[in-house]
Amino acid sequence: MPIDQPIRRRRGRPPKDASDRDDTREALLRAGLEVLTEKGFSATGIDEILRRVSVPKGSFYHYFASKEAFGIELIDRYAAYFAHKLDCILNDASRPPLQRLRAFVADAADSMARHNFRRGCLIGNLGQEMGSLPEHFRARLADVFADWQVRVERCLLAARDAGALSPTADCPQLAAVFWIGWEGAVLRARLERRAEPLVAFGEFFLDAIEQ
């Protein structure tokens, strides 16, 4: 589906009050996250998202200026959610640093299995269809990956300080390699509908860097 352009006219029935508007807007964002972790942005129609939350057809533009604006907000929402998840796991001082990365891999495998491997990483999904998305999506997606990379880098630095990595380990480069490989593992796990690609990559990466 082509990207909708911003419009001036507001279609559909307006919300009754501010609280109704906020609730409906939040429901649309939640539905959008569910759909876009399963399907591509270009292939997802607004009507499908509206049906999930029983919002009248045409009301979408009371809450978002365009499908493009909706997509940017979904990127920001998913980025914040996943950054919080990373922090909870990678900053867990009760585990050695490299065990935190193993915990992340295990948590991701469990999460994908709960949804029968239909859902992947929204940021990775959008990156794969960048050729059909607005160009300014590219910078936002790159920023999100850079943010996640820094969080893994900090965990690896803690592992190096603890003696679990070589003193000469290039933690920024290792963090970059982790995310490059991880997104491929997520794609393969969805394709095969099994956790083995995630587990295999996690074990290979950690075995390769651990001292």
Question: How many DSSP E strands?
Answer: 0
Ends distance: 49 Å
Structural class: mainly alpha
The pLDDT mean sits at 88
CATH class: Mainly Alpha
Textual characterization of the structure:
The chain is an all-alpha fold. The chain has a single domain (18-209), classed as Tetracycline Repressor, domain 2 (Orthogonal Bundle), CATH 1.10.357.10. Helix content is 65%, strand content 0%. The radius of gyration is 19 Å and the shape is elongated.
Question: Could you outline the blueprint of secondary structure elements for this entry?
Answer:
Blueprint: H1 18-36, H2 46-52, H3 67-90, H4 97-114, H5 122-128, H6 136-161, H7 171-192, H8 196-209
Helix pairs in contact: 3-6, 4-6, 4-8, 5-6, 6-7, 7-8
Short précis:
The chain is built from eight helices and no strands. With about 210 residues, the chain is mostly helical. The longest helix is centred in the C-terminal third of the chain and has 26 residues.
From the structure above, extract its key features:
211 residues; mainly alpha; Tetracycline Repressor, domain 2; 65% helix
